[in-house]
Write a structure and sequence with these properties.
Layout lengths: L5 E6 L4 E8 L2 E9 L1 H4 L7 H23 L8 E7 L3 H18 L3 E5 H7 L2 H4 L6 E6 L4 E8 L3 E7 L5 H11 L7 H8 L16 H6 L7 H16 L6 H26 L4 E5 L6 H13 L3 E3 L3 H4 L4 H12 L23
Parallel strand pairs: 1-4, 4-5, 6-9, 9-10
Antiparallel strand pairs: 1-2, 2-3, 6-7, 7-8
Helix pairs in contact: 2-3, 4-13, 6-9, 6-10, 7-10, 9-10, 10-11
The protein binds 5'-O-[(R)-(carboxyoxy)(hydroxy)phosphoryl]adenosine and zinc ion.
Length: about 350
């Protein structure tokens, strides 16, 4: 028998119903049911559709995770769940399911922050988190730079996007280019055959007073508009849109800003480890550029494998297991689903 805690984690903050099972830092199962196809024709996640899909997927996904891990629910030491931030109706399904399991099995409940889970998941791949580390979380809903001392205690926000999230920019630009939703992976693929220097798109908040006032913040809405104007001008002139070049040049602008600011934040805070998480961390160019720039400043980069970067239940279980190992007090059984849970609150 291992003395590492066996934890089941549930994630329903957006369109993925994730149920993960970990023992300490060891991943045993990561079952994900996605409703992404049901949202594709709307070009974005429809909250009501997501909630209903979570309801339908919850029990089968729990069963699948237990089968894969070869454990029974009764063996689990604790239940962890994303209590926020996210879509409230979607979160409610996960929180209610986790409470039911915790009560039925008489096991402690840990309501955890989605963003802190994106940080904690890396332990499943690369072992204990360096303390402190600089985390850059880039997803469809968030783009933040966080200073993490102890992920179970809290994180210090250094900066965030002031308008669109990085993933949102990928999704919107993909739509402009006629690529399917979610757009990130399609832009990533198109960009491979395009030129990243074909078009000089703007880099938000990287110079002059903007940089002074927003050193660790991001802005992607100007970039998105610049891409839209460029594409419209080509179309108005009756010329074909070079999709691969637009994708590569846009992707370069996003990755340039993200990596520049992340490395600057690490150096400014004397931190030697940069962790990148969230769906956009799956981007191939972001990974390469981050490695290159960080190495020049003696900073190491950790990026979980793509399946652990996008939303999943294993990340919630990973943070829950860390809470148990570090002896944190479990959540009350009446915790709410908090759609705007601040990043500073790691445990509800
Ligand atoms: O973390 P995540 O699965 O869900 C949220 O919490 O938002 O992130 C989804 C986002 C989407 O915007 C998607 O387009 C983006 O991550 N994404 C990517 C890539 N794979 C997923 N963006 C750029 N390149 C990729 N390879
Ligand atoms: Zn996420």
């Amino acid at each position: 028998m291992s003395d590492q805690p066996l934890v089941l984690g549930i994630e329903t903050s957006c369109d993925e119903t994730g149920v993960g099972i970990v023992r300490g830092h060891t991943l045993l199962a990561d079952a994900v049911a996605s409703s992404v196809d049901e949202h594709a024709r709307f070009g974005g996640v429809v909250p009501e559709v997501a909630s209903r899909a979570h309801l339908e997927a919850m029990v089968p996904t729990i069963e699948r995770a237990c089968d894969t891990a070869g454990v029974r629910l009764a063996d689990v030491d604790a239940i962890a769940v994303t209590s926020g931030p996210g879509l409230v109706g979607a979160l409610l399904v996960g929180v209610a399911s986790a409470k039911a399991l915790a009560i039925g099995l008489d096991k402690p409940l840990y309501g955890v922050n989605h963003l802190a889970s994106h940080v904690a998941v890396d332990q499943l791949e690369h072992g204990p988190l360096p303390e402190p580390c600089l985390a850059m979380l880039v997803s469809g809903g968030h783009s933040s730079l966080l200073l993490v001392e102890d992920v179970t205690q809290g994180v210090e926000p250094l900066g965030a996007t002031i308008d669109d999230a990085a993933g949102e920019a990928f999704d919107k630009v993909a739509r402009l280019l006629g690529l399917p939703f979610p757009g990130g992976p399609h832009i990533d693929r198109e960009a491979r055959s395009g030129s990243s220097v074909a078009i000089d798109f703007p880099r938000g908040l990287t110079s002059g007073r903007d940089l002074q006032r927003h050193r660790f913040d991001f802005s992607f809405s100007g970039l998105k508009t610049a891409v839209a104007r460029w594409v419209e001008a080509r179309e108005a002139a009756g010329e074909p849109v070079p999709v691969a070049d637009v994708a590569a040049s846009f992707q370069e602008a996003v990755c340039d800003v993200l990596t520049r600011k992340a490395v600057d934040a690490a150096v400014a805070n004397g931190v030697e480890d940069l962790l990148i998480g969230g769906g956009v961390a799956a981007n191939s160019r972001l990974r390469v550029l981050a490695e290159e720039r960080a190495a020049r400043h003696g900073v190491r980069v950790r990026v979980p494998r793509p399946a652990l970067c996008t939303d999943n239940g294993a990340m919630v279980a990973a943070l829950g297991a860390e809470m148990v190992s570090r002896g944190r007090t479990p959540s009350a059984l009446d915790i709410p689903a908090d759609s705007s849970l601040p990043i500073t609150e790691v445990l509800a």
